[in-house]
C-alpha cells in the first residue's frame, strides 16, 4: 500500500512508563501486537502524539508505538520542564525499548523528532534497522536564526514576523526574543499570557502551513507545545547539533529523510547544504526533496511521501531480518 490513505490501526492499549525524575511517559500502541515495532517520534519538541499519527503506517504489519516525550501530550507532569533535556529524551527511548523487551525496531518522526531519532540511531546503531524522517530540524545557529531571526523565514513572511517579534527592542538577538516570550507565557495577566502564546503559535503555523491562522481559544496541548519549544530553544537545544554531528558517521540503519520544497520551518536548502548530512548520502542513506511539500503533514504531498517511506521501511526490515 503506497497511497496517502492507510488502513486504520486498532488500538492495542495504552499506559504510562516511569522514566525517573518524576516523569512518566504516555505510550499508546496501535496496529498489530505481533507486528514490526515502530517508534514514532513527534516533533516540537513538545507536540505530543495524536491517534491520527498511526494512520501514517500500515497497521496490518506494524506495531506502532506513539510515545509522548517528557512533558508533552498525556505524559506526566504535563508541560514539565524540569529534568527535560535532550540527554533525558534519548535515555527515555532506551527505557521504553527495554521495558517493552524490543531488540530491534524502526524509527519514524518529523521535525525535532527527526533530530532526536538520528542522534539515537547513531548512539545505538545496533538497535535501529530502518528509519524515515521528514522536515528534519537542524539545531545549528543557522537553523535557529532561520526560524526565529529577522534574516531567515522572516524575509518571506515579513508581516507575520513583525506580529511575532513586536515589542522586542533589538531584532536578531535571539536571547532577548526568548526572554520576552518566557515572561509573556508566565505573565500574571491572563490576557497578556494568551497574546504571547498566540503570537508564538501563529508564527509557527505561518511557516508550517502558510495562509493558516489560529482560530478560537488556545487549547492546553498548544500551550504545552509552546512552553517546551521555548524551553529547548532558550537552551540551544541542549547542544543537539554537536550530538547530531557525532551521530551521523555512526548510523548503520537504512535512512530516508524527506524535506518539503516549501518547508519554511526546516528549509530543504539548509539540509541540502549541511555537510555532516551530505557526507553520509549513499544508496542506503537518502535525502529526498518532496516537490511542493510543506512542513505540515496536512499537505497531501508530504503525507503521501511519508506513507510511502513507511512501506519502504517494511521492505528493508524483511530484507535485513
From TrEMBL:
Transmembrane segments: none annotated. GO terms for molecular function: hydrolase activity. Keywords: Aminopeptidase, Cytoplasm, Hydrolase, Protease. It is found in: Cytoplasm. Its main location: cytoplasm. Residues 37-128 form the AB hydrolase-1 domain. Coiled coil: none annotated. It catalyses: Release of N-terminal proline from a peptide. Pfam families: Abhydrolase_1 (PF00561). This is Proline iminopeptidase. SUPFAM superfamilies: alpha/beta-Hydrolases. It comes from the Bacteria. Its EC number is 3.4.11.5. Belongs to the peptidase S33 family.
Amino acid at each position: 500500500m503506497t497511497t496517502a490513505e492507510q488502513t486504520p490501526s486498532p488500538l492495542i492499549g495504552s499506559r504510562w512508563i516511569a522514566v525517573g525524575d518524576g516523569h512518566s511517559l504516555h505510550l499508546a500502541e496501535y496496529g498489530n501486537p505481533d507486528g514490526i515495532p515502530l517508534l514514532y517520534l513527534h516533533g516540537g519538541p513538545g507536540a505530543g502524539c495524536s491517534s491520527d499519527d498511526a494512520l501514517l503506517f500500515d497497521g496490518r504489519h506494524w506495531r506502532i508505538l506513539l510515545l509522548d516525550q517528557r512533558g508533552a501530550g498525556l505524559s506526566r507532569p504535563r508541560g514539565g520542564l524540569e529534568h527535560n533535556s535532550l540527554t533525558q529524551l534519548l535515555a527515555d527511548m532506551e527505557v521504553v525499548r527495554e521495558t517493552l523487551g524490543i531488540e530491534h525496531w524502526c524509527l519514524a518522526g518529523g521535525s525535532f523528532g527527526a533530530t532526536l531519532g538520528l542522534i539515537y540511531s547513531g548512539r545505538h546503531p545496533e538497535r535501529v534497522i530502518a528509519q524515515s524522517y521528514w522536515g528534519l530540524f537542524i539545531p545549528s545557529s543557522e537553523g535557529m536564526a532561520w526560524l526565529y531571526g529577522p534574516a531567515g523565514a522572516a524575509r518571506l513572511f515579513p508581516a507575520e514576523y513583525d506580529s511575532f517579534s513586536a515589542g522586542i527592542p533589538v531584532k536578531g538577538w535571539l536571547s532577548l526574543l526568548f526572554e520576552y516570550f518566557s515572561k509573556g507565557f508566565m505573565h500574571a495577566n491572563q490576557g497578556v499570557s494568551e497574546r504571547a502564546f498566540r503570537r508564538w503559535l501563529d508564527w509557527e503555523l505561518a511557516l508550517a502551513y502558510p495562509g493558516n491562522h489560529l482560530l478560537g481559544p488556545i487549547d492546553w496541548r498548544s500551550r504545552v507545545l509552546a512552553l517546551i519549544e521555548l524551553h529547548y530553544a532558550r537552551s540551544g537545544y541542549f547542544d543537539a547539533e554537536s550530538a547530531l554531528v557525532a551521530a551521523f558517521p555512526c548510523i548503520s540503519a537504512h535512512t530516508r529523510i524527506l524535506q518539503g520544497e516549501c518547508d519554511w520551518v526546516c528549509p530543504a536548502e539548509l539540509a541540502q547544504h549541511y555537510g555532516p548530512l551530505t557526507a553520509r548520502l549513499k544508496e542506503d542513506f537518502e535525502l529526498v526533496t518532496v516537490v511542493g511539500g510543506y512542513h505540515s503533514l496536512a499537505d497531501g504531498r508530504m503525507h503521501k511521501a511519508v506513507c510511502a517511506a513507511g512501506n519502504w521501511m517494511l521492505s528493508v526490515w524483511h530484507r535485513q531480518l
